[in-house]
Amino acid sequence: MNLVPRLNLLLLTILLTFSLTGCPGPSPSTDMTEESSENSSTEAKEDVPLEPLLKPFDAPSLADLDAEVEWEEQPVLDSLELLRERQSKEKQLVSVKEALKLKNTNQESNEKILSALGRLPENDEEVDWNATINRHVGADLKSTNPIMGSSAVEFEVSSLTGFGLFSFDWNFRPFAVSDTVVSWQTSKDMLYDKVVLRDDLTWSDGTPITAHDIVFTFKTIMNPRVPVPAVRSGTDQLKWIQAYDDQTLVFFHKEALPTNVWNLNFPIIPKHIYEKELETDPTLQDSQYHVKYENEPVTGGPYELEKRVRGQEIILKRRESWYMQDGKEVRTRPYFERVRLRIIQDPNTALLALKKGEIDEMALNPELWKTQTEDEDFYKTCTKANGLEWVYFYFGWNCETLFFKDKKVRQAMSYAFNHKEMLDELCYGLYQPCTGIYHETAWMAPKPMTKPFQQNLNKAEDLLDEAGWIDHDGDGIRDKEFDGKIIPFRFTIMTANRPLSLSICTLLKENLDQIGIICEVKPTEFTVMQDKARNHQFQAMFGGWGTGTDPDTSINLWKTDAPRNYGQYSNPEVDKLFEEGRREFDKDKRAKIYGKIHEILYEDQPYTWLYFRNSFYGFNKDLRGYVFSPRGPYGYGPGFGSLWKPVSK
């Protein structure tokens, strides 16, 4: 299973998460969910130190390493076989024919639909191997270079066109992918990982994929002149990678940590293409040479780019050389001959396309799920399903502003907001309240779980009074004196221009009006919002994050001065606990450490946590194989993994 690259990836949100799934590839960590895509050139503006990021390292010979190290075998597995084994033990509650007649009106019907329509095919004869899947995406692709990726759609494309060495199952247990790896061993002291690649991997131009491509990519990512801070996060925890021959790699870790496994994987680029112009154009995008390969990328995964119409669609074609060698099928053939990503920004327009059969699936916001997908017109061609997903949304407070430096004020914001109205009316009762960074079903969640905030205007006013925000001049607006100057409590919250996010921020504005605070809601274009967030040029914002494969991944959000700590939150105890957590190997002890972090953040309220947004999707009735997990739907196997279409009867 692979969902999205292992990056502390901000896709500053602000409303819906793309499902980031596909072929075996990089493992995820914390990522943000967004409908818009981030411009790579915006990432390039980020200040990057020019001193070397890699220290000189003299790798030992492989013979010396093998003589010194005690290797332990690690699993090399097939994602689809894992899912097939799991489904063989699950009861199919209704027939496919019965499932297609059902309306998804409750959890019982949802389970029946998934039990029948979420299954893999019984045999190859059931599959329409010439089929195209028409996917919905909310924004265009900005870069086809996988290490330049910084948005949901970019990682979705790279999960189809790229290849990776590792993945993980629905319980976040890592494994090496049998499509690309022969063997994976970890040293008993946790300082080394040795991987042997398959020798039948090729790039789309026919050039063999080797261990040298991976080393080259690692060094490129760690080149301070190359603007890839998103991909560099995590990769920079590696000391070195050494290729001992075309297939054998050893990863050298800086220290023994339980989180090391998540740093092994990153998007891979072809050495023979990018080494030619790397020094002359380290942006990887400005020169004529790099523009050529932006438009005609050399890919290493199951698909290659066939056609792209900017702002409209991206079409990928199944690559025969991925799964066929010398007339034999050496890897699982992706179920779809083509993947068409249809770019539709407006959810209502996308729903019309789904009903017409122009797209095969789309994420549904609460309003669409509740009000526009319950009639015969929808069920004539479509069905829908939902599942648990660990994606939370919040109001983020800039803790270095005059307004939100005091935690009493941040707590007051959480008491002032009408959480019940948001959940019941704006979210139509579909989402559950969120109280912090971990979902209650996660192993690292605190026990007992923190309780959701409820609106309490009296409590909010008392906290504001204690913090010194009082209406001194009688104009109805709270104010406070700073350096001899009276500052009214008037701030701006930025958000994406999406109906639900705007409605939630407007509700906040109305609630704060009642206690003498002026909140201005500012719809902001995504790339501008990204830039302002990175540079801490905001007072408040509405956003959302997905939970990573390991709780350590959120260190990039909460540690003092961390790259993605946009709200400038700082608590030495949280910093200390994160360092303890990444060095503790006992899972139960780790859980207590991260549960404590959750509780401290709950007390400090650098965010007002709002809700967990589960996966709600509409599907064409011809689509099969949708499987949900805490990381979202679909992520098993190559291409679009478990998704497939049956032969027409």
UniProtKB/TrEMBL annotation:
Region (Disordered): 23-52
Any Pfam family: SBP_bac_5
Molecular function (Gene Ontology), one example: peptide transmembrane transporter activity
Glycoprotein in keyword set: no
Record-linked InterPro entries: SBP_5 (IPR039424), SBP_5_dom (IPR000914)
Gene Ontology terms: biological process: peptide transport
Range of residues in the leader sequence: 1-22
Keywords of this entry: Signal, Transport
Keyword match Signal: yes
Gene3D superfamilies per the UniProt record, alphabetical: Dipeptide-binding Protein, Domain 1, Dipeptide-binding Protein, Domain 3, Periplasmic binding protein-like II
Domain Solute-binding protein family, chain residue ranges per copy: 182-562
Family membership noted in the UniProt record: Belongs to the bacterial solute-binding protein 5 family.
This protein's name: Oligopeptide-binding protein AppA
Upper taxonomic lineage: Bacteria, Pseudomonadati, Planctomycetota, Planctomycetia, Planctomycetales
Originating gene: appA
